[in-house]
Specification:
single chain; mainly alpha; two-stranded antiparallel sheet; 15 helices
Length: about 375
Amino acid sequence: MKKRILKNMEWWIVIWGIALCVIGLVALFSATSETNYSEFTKQIIWIIVSIPVMLIVMMIDYNLLVKMSPIFYGLSIILLILVLLTEPIHGASSWFLIGDFTFQPSEFAKIAVILFLTFTICKFQQRGKDEINKPWKMLVTILIVIIPLLLILKQPDYGTATAYVISLALILFTAGIDKKYIIATVLLVVILLPIIYIYILPEHAKSRIEVFLNPEADPRGAGYNVIQSKLAIGAGKLMGMGLLNGNQTQLGYLYPKTTDFIFSVIGEEMGFIISSLVIVLYVLIITKIVYIAKTAKDEEGSYIAIGIAGIFLFHMIENIGMTMGLLPITGVPLLFVSYGGSSMIISFICLGILLNISGNRQKTIFVK
């Protein structure tokens, strides 16, 4: 790879991502003390594996990935169908068990869908930027997301499904979607939300929304997790209670504390300062990704980058929001921080793609 391309890459997103990983490892070390640090050890392995994968992806031209995206998309659909045949874990058929490890195909599908969306939109726009606004082309574009979306809802995994919608919305906005579609979508959501809530949403999903609105209504049942999470974050105050000293964390009141509620562990044991640092690091990463999207050399790079920005943005807001009781609990992990091999590898793959996009920006022409 040419030195000028390597020099032009936005390495800060990697540095900030690794900083989040370090904070996550410290939190996992404390949260897994009663289980002989099993998840902490596995997380280190996942990070060690993810970094070389990122470097490999970094060297692959993202335009080549876009061309291969129909294959990736087809494979992701097959995996999303097959995972529905597996034994449910915690009430959801979302994982393949491979020995002591699990693989979540919906994480892999995030990248596949973003790449295939980019491939399709760019094909449409070869005849003109406004081609995407033709009704049948807009329908095809939306169907690309609807198919995996329905399969993920079937698992069920409402949080991950929402991430796809946010990514689609940002890509379409960047592609120049007509205002009439935005207005129609808003009106459709307003009309359909009550219908979906009353007639389509399963009882456990309704329960989560009701708990979000009033967790004290069932403090020992559905509202238990969010109440304990808020207690943990509040108890941390400015500096935290110290590693291995958090009441909610160490006495088993937080669950699952290594994935969904890892931010609660950070808040309780490391305090407001480190919790704020996590948010700042995420804001820096997302802001830099948006900058990469704005300065990409072509539409392909812009669409991929803004799609990834949507994934990161949703995961940050939803996970941190739900631990504070500001949003419903959906089981969405905090990328780079929560325990999980699939999300860790995919997050670093995203960084690898972003490095390639930033390295091949137009301004590399002026680098001596």
